[in-house]
Fold this sequence. Notes:
18% of the residues lie in helices and 30% in strands. By secondary structure, the protein is of the alpha+beta class. It has a single domain, classed as Pnp Oxidase, Chain A, CATH 2.30.110.10. Strands 1, 2, 3, 4, 5, 6, 7, 8, 9 and 10 form a 10-stranded antiparallel β-sheet that branches. The longest helix is centred in the middle third of the chain and has 15 residues, at 127-141. It is globular, with a radius of gyration of 21 Å.
Amino acid sequence: MTEETPKPVLPEVLLQTERTRHRRLREQGSLDRADLDAVLKAGFLCHLGVVVDGAPMVVPTVYGTDGSTVYFHGSVASRSLVASPGATVCLTVTHVDGLVLARSVFEHGVNYRSAMVYGVPRAVTDPEEKLAGLRCLTEHVTPGQWDYARRPSRKELAATALLALSLDEASVKVRTGPPDDGDGPDADSGVWAGVLPLTRHWGALEADPALPEGVAAPDHLAERAHQPLP
């Protein structure tokens, strides 16, 4: 897939498989692909679960998505996956939105948004797709940076392992709202209950000490500083 190749159109409803079917807390599950897109768009760090030499390994790495494919790379992930072609992985993205503090410890919980993507990733070897995939990843993490910084050279591209995972098989869960024990036996216990929200935001830009005097941050970075994360 190159930058000019149209991306495949996926169904609006997520496919249910044995791996993605919601078995517990079904009310928190969603089959809406828009919810999957929202969870992936709101983050840039995923955890990649894969079996290497018979043992499980979970690797944190950055990712980017174009709505139909997730692109990711990293030395550990590349070593384990490229060395074991055909290995099924589970890629997860989670956002914590708050602590749900109930009247009893048993009813405590977390407000969150999470996605799990299953499949067999493929190594991206076509130079044009690799460049497009790296652009997708870069723009997902920091919009505007691809056209600002120097792009990868041929040597750098050859040294970069990029993997692509289809979004065909995915599961989404979202939990929002107050505790569930407001009408239970502990309702009149006098214990405070509610939600302690967790919010995230970007801080102030910190210039590289080696940066020559007079080099200002580009607008796309200056405008992002102090902004809240979705």
